[in-house]
Design goal:
Blueprint lengths: L2 H6 L2 H13 L7 H6 L17 H9 L7 E5 L5 H8 L3 E6 L2 H10 L6 E4 L13 E7 L7 H12 L2 E12 L16 H9 L4 E9 L7 E8 L2
Parallel strand pairs: 1-2, 1-4, 2-3, 4-5
Antiparallel strand pairs: 5-7, 6-7
Bound molecules: S-adenosylmethionine (SAM).
S-adenosylmethionine binds next to strand 2.
């Protein structure tokens, strides 16, 4: 989050609102309100960095493609990561459960080659199953509670074609710590489940602190379906 947005943002009210939906077992019902509150201004979405992930861009530079491949971006928000994948030659679907997020993307990038669409990770179109060469996930699992985190991870892994990669970017924590925090960062055991439960191969794994003040611990991992 940038500092200006940080100052204006009422984090306690946000946490309370998210918890109230989680307690009603409606863990995805609040996302659209975040984008609606931006009133058509994509720069006002508090969690949007407004630039693609540096780790994603580095991976794309290190792994150039010769022919077009298919990528999908989970919970694509305001679209920066989708556009980066598109610029590196991928045929990209960016989807989000929030119709307002998708509208923001379409207005922000009227000439984009990315196919921005409203879809739910938990009920995605059948033809997406095992259909993508690259899946990009940034910060979606961490905003979900309990069993939905496992269902989300499984759904993400199920999008991978043979030999495909999934890139996972998220906040991190030590196991047993910060249990009540929103968003709830992933611990190592949780992210390792891409390997231990979904049978993917770990290609790289990075634990790092970001550049916020104070720094926030993160993971950036790449897994492959073998
Ligand atoms: C914390 S935001 C991160 C957005 C973006 N990936 C980024 O890094 O800026 C999580 C996103 O996931 C979307 N989302 C949550 N649950 C979803 C689901 N079941 N299917 C599709 N998108 C979902 C939300 O609407 C939101 O845009």
């Amino acid at each position: 989050m940038n500092e200006k947005k940080n100052e204006e943002f009422d984090f306690n009210a946000y946490t309370k609102m998210v918890k109230s939906y989680q307690e009603k077992d409606e863990p995805t019902a609040w996302f659209d309100s975040i984008y609606k509150n931006a009133n058509g201004d994509y720069t006002a979405v508090f969690w949007a960095d407004l630039e693609p992930s540096g780790h994603l861009v580095q991976w794309l530079k290190n792994n150039p493609i010769k022919t077009s491949k298919k990528a999908i971006v989970i919970g694509c928000g305001v679209g920066d990561d989708c556009e980066a994948l598109s610029q590196f030659g991928y045929e990209v679907i960016g989807f989000d459960i929030s119709p307002t997020a998708i509208e923001l993307c379409q207005n922000r990038y009227p000439n984009s080659k990315v196919n921005y669409m409203v879809a739910d990770l938990f009920d995605y179109p059948k033809e997406w199953f095992e259909n993508f060469d690259v899946v990009y996930e940034c910060n979606t699992i961490q905003v979900l509670p309990g069993k939905y985190r496992i269902l989300a991870r499984q759904a993400m892994s199920s999008l991978l074609a043979s030999k495909a990669h999934i890139l996972v970017s998220c906040r991190s924590r030590n196991k047993g710590e910060q249990e009540e925090v929103i968003p709830l960062p992933l611990d190592k055991e949780e992210i390792d489940a891409f390997v231990t439960s979904d049978n993917l191969k770990e290609i790289s794994f990075l634990a790092y602190d970001d550049e916020q003040t104070p720094p926030v611990p993160h993971f950036f991992a790449v897994y492959q379906k073998v």
